[in-house]
């Protein structure tokens, strides 16, 4: 790269204004600087080098979306996350803190396995609670059965698993539960009373059908989803109904009721009941139980 020119200025006693005398190649080898020769004393030039400022590389642009508008800002480059090996224990792992909503139920299977289950209420807001089904196996099932009670605030971690069922119109319903791998109690110095929102024990008022009152269509669908997610929590009264108006299924703890022929039932209820009955029948035969036993399941049937 050619050297930058040097501007030589000379100021004489009779002329206060400097005059440009010549432009000479700069002896400064730095290509990013230029030199000017100014008078010093009598006709003695001095060189002043001014370096060009180098700007740091501009950060990459990033886009931020908020609501219905998008904004661009100058983001700072970050280090790429490290890679870790795949682990079954980490796959679909979740941590939850909530209030136990029903007594822990336990079943000792003929295979030697121990199964326990309950529901956990997780607060979404001051007035809304999401209920998550929990399943415990073997030693942890015994621990939960012996120590966990309704109303306790607990922390659980485990794997989120799902069961997908299809209705008559081929629409898919997905149910979720957590297979608990770790269980802890929350210290009592953290208030749990305000967080506990018990499930209703009465049937919500809604549409009347067949002379009795049932749930609204929205709440009915949620109840059926809860039923298929954890059918062992419900009494099956279909073969021993006290009267025709008595519910076909009744929750063992909350008293919530469901009728198979309700007008506001989801269209997929009967087809899913047929699938459930078939699976339960096979399960009972494999374990030597009577089909009259209320809904229970083992590891071969995961309704959630």
UniProtKB/TrEMBL annotation:
State the UniProt keywords alphabetically: DNA-binding
**Any Pfam family hit:** SSB
**Stretch list, region Disordered:** 1-80
One GO molecular function term? Answer: single-stranded DNA binding
Any keyword DNA-binding?
yes
A GO biological-process term: mitochondrial DNA replication
Cited CDD domains = SSB_OBF (cd04496)
- Which cellular component terms (GO) are annotated to the entry? mitochondrial nucleoid
Q: Does the keyword Acetylation apply?
A: no
Mind telling me what this protein is named? Single-strand binding protein family
What's the superkingdom here? Eukaryota
Recorded hits in PROSITE patterns, A to Z, give: SSB (PS50935)
Output compositional bias ranges, type Basic and acidic residues.
Answer: 68-80
């Amino acid at each position: 790269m050619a050297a930058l020119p040097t501007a030589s200025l000379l100021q004489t006693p009779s002329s206060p204004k400097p005059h440009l005398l010549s432009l000479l190649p700069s002896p400064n080898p730095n290509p990013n600087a230029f030199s000017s020769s100014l008078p010093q004393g009598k006709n003695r030039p001095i060189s002043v080098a001014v370096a060009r400022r180098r700007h740091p590389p501009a950060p990459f642009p990033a886009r931020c979306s908020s609501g219905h508008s998008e904004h661009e800002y100058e983001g700072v480059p970050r280090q790429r996350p490290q890679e870790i090996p795949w682990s079954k224990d980490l796959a679909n792992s979740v941590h939850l803190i909530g209030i136990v909503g029903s007594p822990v139920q336990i079943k000792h299977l003929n295979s030697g396995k121990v199964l326990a289950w309950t529901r956990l209420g997780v607060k979404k807001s001051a007035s809304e609670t999401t209920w998550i089904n929990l399943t415990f196996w073997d030693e942890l099932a015994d621990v939960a059965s012996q120590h966990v009670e309704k109303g306790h605030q607990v922390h659980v971690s485990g794997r989120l698993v799902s069961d997908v069922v299809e209705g008559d119109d081929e629409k898919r319903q997905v149910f979720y539960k957590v297979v608990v791998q770790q269980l802890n109690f929350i210290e009592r110095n953290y208030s749990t009373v305000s967080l506990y929102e018990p499930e209703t024990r009465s049937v919500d008022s809604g549409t009347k059908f067949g002379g009795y009152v049932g749930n609204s269509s929205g709440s009915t669908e949620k109840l059926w989803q809860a039923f298929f997610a954890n059918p062992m929590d419900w009494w099956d009264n279909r073969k021993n109904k006290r009267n025709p108006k008595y519910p076909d299924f009744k929750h063992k703890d909350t008293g919530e009721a469901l009728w198979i022929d309700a007008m506001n039932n989801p269209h997929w209820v009967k087809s899913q009941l047929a699938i459930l009955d078939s699976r339960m029948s096979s399960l009972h035969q494999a374990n030597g139980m009577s089909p009259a036993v209320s809904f229970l399941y083992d590891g071969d049937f995961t309704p959630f």
